[in-house]
Design goal:
Blueprint (H helix, E strand, L loop, with lengths): L3 E3 L2 H4 L18 E6 L5 E11 L11 E7 L7 E5 L18 H7 L3 E5 L7 E3 L2 H6 L8 E3 L5 H15 L7 E10 L1 H11 L7 H7 L10 E5 L5 H12 L3 H4 L3 H20 L2 E2 L5 E2 L4 H18 L10 E3 L44 E4 L1 H11 L20 H5 L12 H6 L6 H9 L16 E7 L8 H12 L3 E7 L10 H12 L1
Parallel strand pairs: 5-6, 5-9, 9-10, 10-15, 15-16
Antiparallel strand pairs: 1-2, 2-3, 3-4, 4-6, 7-8, 11-12, 13-14
Helix pairs in contact: 7-9
Length: about 500
């Protein structure tokens, strides 16, 4: 349980000002506070809250950041920037949490920054001044403030704010490490992959963002929901042969087949190379995924996990270990309500059943993917751009690319054609601005040099090729990438924090 003791609370509310025309940071306005960390130790820090990072504030509920400076931090201390974006929804600036990466970062002595951002659900009611300043808007009209690409613009503005006040504020703005999960993982990837790209410049200028750089030092991305214009085809290519997809009605089964058929040409167009330098193509992609899952499972097995043959694995004959490796010395995360996930064998005698086989030698991918699907049902078809008149309802991603009036729109050629429409240039631009894959290696971007990417080995919220493509493209661009399809993890983030913060310590030493 997190405990915070705040001193002079009222003072923090005056640190940020919504002045239209000047960004504000008052170094003497911090508030002394304490947090009880996960291990019971007490962490003292200074809080600077409600720091508005743009001068043209459209939505005052979200467009500010909070900064937490642990005692002993200096101008050289790395900055850990955590976004809590989820589902592309609005994310308010919060305080550090002892049980996640923000509390751990504060305990480790890093400056912690938590920015608020607008999202697909954030809205305001236009007053007279707003209506006058925005053509076509009427007083009293509900305006959705956070449709794409507003969230990444807010985060870029927050980074620019940190650079703007780098000399006045503790923490090194040249060593910003971003972190996020799911859509927040996408935002972390975007911050890392789009630094200083000119395509965002005019939009940031219109917001009143500081005229500074917005590249970052490192990006931590848990299960990033990215590459949305290609995510549907990757999803169906991977899961088309599972029992779940084979039981669909004819209409959706046809869409599965059509989307899956689009993936090979896309992945081949990326010109990716495996770590050994050989091409990664549609012909060998499934085998490469299999090798990555085996690698992750072997790491877990070496740490004591029991990897069962019932879900497709084959082994050598030597004796192995137990059901699941504890994370950070804690409870085994796979156990829910005292029971292992479906398809996993229970522990026996309190110490776990010994699994035959020291090393994993092979994996039946169809059997394994059916196991993944058995732990959580697949998304519909299409999984992301799902809005098809008379067939499917809109998804959150359809809302994300919608407009300020609240409409949802298609964002892929495939689904737009199903509705008899085409994508506008504005939608195409927004789709591009929301995809980190668009900018890696383009020559106009300062891509973060360090990356930590995790996607659960039973996470079906997006298909495995999506994070694999991201990690591989970054590796091919010469970036330092620590990537893993974390064994038996569902859709989640901020796990194995000992490992994460050891990596952060290594890249920042």
């Amino acid at each position: 349980m997190r405990k915070i003791f705040t001193i002079l609370f009222g003072a923090c509310l005056s640190v940020g000002a919504m002045a239209q025309g000047a960004l504000v940071f008052e170094a003497n306005a911090g508030v002394k506070s304490k947090m009880t960390a996960y291990d019971g130790t007490e962490v003292s820090y200074t809080a600077y809250e409600r720091l508005f990072y743009v001068t043209n504030v459209e939505d005052s509920a979200y467009q500010f950041l909070n900064v937490y400076v642990p005692d002993g931090a200096t101008q050289q201390t790395p900055i850990f920037l955590r976004t809590y974006v989820g589902g592309y929804m609005a994310s308010p600036a919060t305080q550090p949490q002892a049980g996640d990466a923000t509390g751990r970062a504060l305990k480790e002595g890093y400056v912690v920054v938590i920015p608020g951002t607008r999202g697909r659900n954030s809205s305001i009611v236009a007053d007279k001044a707003y209506a006058k300043a925005h053509k076509g808007v009427k007083k009293g009209q509900t305006i959705f403030t956070g449709r794409a690409p507003k969230a990444i613009l807010d985060l870029k503005a927050a980074i620019r704010y940190l650079r703007h006040f780098d000399k006045q504020m503790p923490g090194d703005a040249e060593r910003i490490i971003t972190d996020g999960t799911s859509a927040g993982g996408a935002m972390s990837a975007l911050m890392g992959a789009t630094g200083n790209n000119p395509e965002y410049a005019e939009l940031l200028k219109a917001m009143g963002a500081a005229d500074e750089r917005d590249d970052v030092f490192a990006s931590v991305c848990y299960c990033p929901i990215i590459d949305l214009e290609h995510a549907d085809m990757a999803y169906e290519w991977l899961y088309q042969q599972t029992d779940s997809r084979q039981s669909l009605d004819d209409t959706h089964k046809l869409m599965t087949k059509e989307l899956a058929a689009l993936f090979p040409s896309y992945v081949n167009s990326l010109n990716l190379k495996k770590p050994d330098g050989t091409p990664l193509t549609a012909d060998n992609y499934l085998d490469y995924l299999k090798s990555e899952i085996i690698r992750a499972a072997q790491i877990a097995k070496n740490a004591g996990a029991d990897i069962p043959d019932s879900i497709g694995f084959k082994f050598t004959s030597e004796a192995g270990g137990m059901f699941a490796a504890p994370i950070n010395g804690g409870m085994r995360p796979q156990m829910q309500g005292g029971q292992p996930p479906k398809g996993m064998r229970p522990m026996r005698g309190g110490m776990g059943r010994k699994q035959v086989g020291e090393y994993i030698t092979d994996l039946d991918m169809q059997k394994y993917l059916n196991y993944v699907v058995s732990t959580q049902a697949l998304k519909g078809v299409p999984a992301f751009d799902s809005q098809i008149e008379g067939i499917n309802n809109a998804s959150g991603e359809n809302e994300e690319f919608g407009d300020a009036t609240g409409n949802s729109v298609n964002f892929t050629n495939y689904t737009a054609e199903k509705n008899g429409t085409t994508l506008t240039d504005a939608i195409r631009r927004n789709v591009r601005l929301m995809n980190p894959m668009s900018f890696i290696g383009d020559g106009n971007t300062s891509v973060a040099p360090h990356w930590y990417i995790r996607h659960g080995a039973r996470d079906r919220d997006t298909a495995f090729p999506v994070p694999v493509n991201l990690a591989t493209k970054l590796q091919n661009a010469g970036k330092d990438v620590n990537f893993l399809l974390a064994w038996n993890r569902p859709h989640s983030g901020d796990y194995a924090l000992d490992e994460l913060f050891q990596w952060i310590a290594e890249i920042t030493k």
